[in-house]
């Protein structure tokens, strides 16, 4: 708020320390909850994708980093295998190995445990960086202490941050959050002119470039910081030389990494941004006569540079068509804005869809509802803040991360630090501000009234309770193990690990497992067996072929099937189908509940597949899955005594029969044998007969 109109009431020492103590307790409790999955389920990597990350990290630990960069994994995408070093971001694996080296100096610990504990360790680093960024944001000494603590507390209880940094959540997002905060903090030091010398600014530019390069090696969403910093540079007309320096370093990292590429739209945009800003600077700081003269020189130089860039692109990629194809394969902006809509496989991934109202509350808490108000609050302060460049970059980060989150749910964790800091700023000013002039009128006076303070206080309490409720739910419902109820009694459903141990110790080591792509990483990571497809969704064609198999007639599935002969031609190699069921367990993520998406993906390989042909019908209503329907009696084909109609395509499909075999006499198998079913009926394993 404006210093000429408002002052901050100084809380008593006890009150200030009391609020800070509550924040400290909240942070400590949120940190302890991150270890709760270990206490509840044991040391556990608790999602599907992190199992691939663990395998890669363990490979580096056992074989060394140099061997990793030549590793072709023969256990995935059989029979072709996968060039891991060309298709995976390695920085998380390297960080885990560094942590293991440090821990090994004090205590012997296995690498699985290290990978399980890596996310909470990274979270501690994130807390420190949020504290540093918040300390720079709160300029007033009267509000800095409390504002920083409130920011850290709100950040620590964010549902989106919690699920990415709790024990076992060994995925890229936790490290990506740390890198984005580190880059933001270094950039803030630069824009606040804390580094005075030219050499110092050059060094900070190199450091930002190194950090951005590491970010590029960590996660595909690293473009977030590129967009934020260059947008701020354009709006504030500053720091473009620093960013050019960092951009050159980042391009060097892109060039050195075997899975990244230099000639990509974001790097071309960096070069063009520097040229535009430098040209504008030259034109604005000379006489009018010189401006005209320089304009022609700069325009000619720009055309020449563009020609060189175009020639370089043509020579490098042989043709514009190849460049376009490379953009389609690798560019993240293209993937987010276009491919998501263009291919059902990408759209089928929940975290790639638009955030729903429920997800907004679940991921960010009730404070996210007032995010537009917080942005307006911050924008209003631009007019009377002495140094508004910092506020500008924070507002830009808040707006950009919010837009990315609303567009795609997986970006929710990027919003957390900005939401926390702006919420803390508004909370401190509303709760502890009072007008200097008693006759002050207008909207701002509303925010210092007692009623407003009570409203804000109650809303903040509601946010805290909501976030802690979300965290308690998340640590009990990790993907691999979850809480459940049988006959009203609580149980722990550990079917995935149970089935993995069965496969590991009862199947031949050279056996091949065919499943839907969701479970490929987990199967190979837990059991060590080979898989036909996995969570690396770049090979659309192979996944579409598996989808086509799952929706096809069960009678056609045998070792003579053309697709199965192609992937496992050796009849001496055992081939199994791994399916996730939800009939007896009411498991919401069963394969049958995904059948509509599977059919849409199958249509990519077989144009004759009609997704609308796979449905159930009861009481005049059409259902594409049985999820959410109670009292389903498949043996008698009824729902609450009403007849259940099963479409011919659904009834004949392989996936339907895999899920309901032995639950109804109408399902018989021809070339498949059920060899394993988990305790709660979630996982089934079938062997394909020769």
From TrEMBL:
EC category name: transferase
Subcellular location field: Endomembrane system
Domain annotation STT3/PglB/AglB core: ranges: 510-559
Bilayer topology term: Multi-pass membrane protein
Main localization of the protein described in the UniProt heading: membrane
Keyword Metal-binding: yes
Residue spans crossing the bilayer: 12-32, 88-107, 114-134, 174-191, 203-230, 242-262, 295-314, 360-378, 390-408, 414-433, 454-472
A GO-annotated cellular component: endomembrane system
InterPro entries, per database record: Oligo_trans_STT3, STT3-PglB_core, STT3_N
Enzymatic reactions: a di-trans,poly-cis-dolichyl diphosphooligosaccharide + L-asparaginyl-[protein] = N(4)-(oligosaccharide-(1->4)-N-acetyl-beta-D-glucosaminyl-(1->4)-N-acetyl-beta-D-glucosaminyl)-L-asparaginyl-[protein] + a di-trans,poly-cis-dolichyl diphosphate + H(+)
EC id: 2.4.99.18
Domain Oligosaccharyl transferase STT3 N-terminal per the UniProt entry, residue ranges: 40-453
Co-factor requirement: Mg(2+); Mn(2+)
Coiled-coil residue spans: none
Pathway the protein acts in: Protein modification; protein glycosylation
GO molecular function: dolichyl-diphosphooligosaccharide-protein glycotransferase activity; metal ion binding
UniProt KW keywords: Glycosyltransferase, Magnesium, Manganese, Membrane, Metal-binding, Transferase, Transmembrane, Transmembrane helix
Entry similarity comment: Belongs to the STT3 family.
Protein name in the entry: dolichyl-diphosphooligosaccharide--protein glycotransferase
């Amino acid at each position: 708020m404006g210093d000429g109109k408002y002052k901050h009431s100084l809380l008593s020492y006890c009150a200030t320390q009391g609020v800070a103590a509550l924040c400290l307790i909240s942070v400590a409790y949120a940190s302890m909850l991150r270890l709760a999955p270990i206490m509840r389920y044991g040391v556990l990597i608790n999602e599907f994708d992190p199992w691939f990350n663990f395998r890669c990290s363990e490979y580096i630990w056992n074989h060394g980093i140099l061997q990793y960069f030549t590793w072709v994994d023969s256990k995935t995408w059989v029979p072709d295998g996968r060039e891991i070093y060309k298709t995976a971001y390695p920085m998380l694996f390297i960080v885990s190995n560094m942590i293991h080296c440090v821990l090994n100096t004090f205590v012997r610990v296995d690498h699985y445990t290290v990978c399980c504990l890596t996310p909470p360790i990274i979270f501690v680093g994130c807390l420190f960086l949020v504290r540093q960024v918040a300390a720079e944001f709160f300029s007033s000494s009267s509000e800095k202490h409390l504002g920083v603590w409130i920011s850290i507390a709100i950040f620590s209880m964010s549902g989106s941050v919690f699920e990415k940094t709790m024990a076992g959540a060994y995925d890229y997002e936790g490290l990506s959050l740390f890198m984005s905060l580190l880059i933001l903090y270094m950039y803030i030091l630069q824009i606040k002119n804390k580094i005075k010398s030219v050499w110092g600014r050059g060094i900070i530019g190199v450091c930002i470039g190194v950090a951005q390069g590491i970010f590029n090696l960590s996660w595909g969403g690293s473009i977030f910081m590129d967009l934020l910093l260059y947008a701020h540079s354009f709006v504030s007309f500053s720091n473009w030389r620093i960013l050019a320096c960092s951009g050159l370093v980042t391009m060097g990292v892109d060039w050195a990494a075997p899975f990244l590429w230099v000639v990509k739209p974001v790097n071309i945009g960096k070069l063009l941004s520097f040229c535009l800003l430098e040209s504008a600077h030259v034109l604005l700081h000379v006489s009018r006569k010189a401006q005209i003269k320089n304009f022609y020189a700069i325009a000619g130089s720009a055309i020449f540079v563009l020609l060189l860039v175009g020639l370089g692109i043509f020579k490098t990629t042989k043709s514009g068509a190849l460049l376009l194809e490379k953009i389609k394969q690798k560019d993240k902006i293209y993937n987010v804005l276009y491919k998501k809509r263009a291919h059902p496989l990408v759209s089928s991934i929940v975290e790639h869809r638009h955030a729903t109202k429920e997800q907004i509350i679940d991921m960010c808490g009730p404070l996210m509802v007032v995010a537009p108000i917080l942005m307006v609050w911050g924008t209003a302060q631009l007019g009377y803040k002495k140094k508004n460049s910092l506020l500008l970059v924070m507002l830009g980060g808040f707006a950009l991360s919010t837009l990315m989150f609303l567009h795609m749910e997986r970006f929710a964790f990027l919003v957390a630090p900005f939401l926390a800091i702006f919420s803390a700023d508004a909370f401190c000013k509303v709760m502890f501000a009072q007008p200097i002039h008693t006759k002050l009128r207008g909207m701002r006076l509303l925010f210092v009234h007692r009623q407003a303070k009570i409203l804000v206080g109650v809303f903040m309490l509601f946010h805290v309770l909501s976030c802690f409720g979300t965290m308690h739910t998340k640590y009990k419902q990790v993907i691999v193990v979850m809480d459940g109820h049988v006959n009203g009694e609580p149980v722990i459903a550990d079917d995935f690990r149970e089935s993995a141990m069965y496969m590991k110790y009862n199947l031949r080591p050279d056996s091949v497992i065919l499943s839907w792509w969701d479970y490929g990483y987990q199967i190979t990571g837990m059991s060590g067996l080979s898989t036909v497809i996995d969570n690396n969704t770049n090979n659309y064609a192979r996944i579409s072929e598996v989808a086509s198999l799952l929706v096809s007639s069960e009678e056609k599935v045998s070792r003579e099937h053309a697709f199965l002969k192609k992937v496992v031609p050796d009849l001496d190699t055992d081939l199994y189908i791994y399916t996730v069921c939800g009939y007896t367990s009411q498991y919401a993520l069963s394969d049958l509940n995904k059948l509509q998406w599977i059919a849409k993906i199958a249509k990519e390989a077989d144009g004759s597949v009609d997704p609308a042909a796979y449905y159930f019908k009861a009481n005049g209503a059409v259902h594409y899955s049985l999820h959410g329907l109670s009292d389903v009696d498949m043996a008698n084909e009824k729902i609450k005594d009403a007849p259940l109609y099963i479409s011919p395509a659904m009834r004949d499909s392989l996936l339907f029969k895999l899920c309901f075999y032995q639950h109804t006499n109408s399902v018989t198998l021809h070339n498949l044998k059920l060899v394993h079913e988990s305790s709660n009926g979630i996982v089934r394993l079938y062997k394909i007969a020769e």
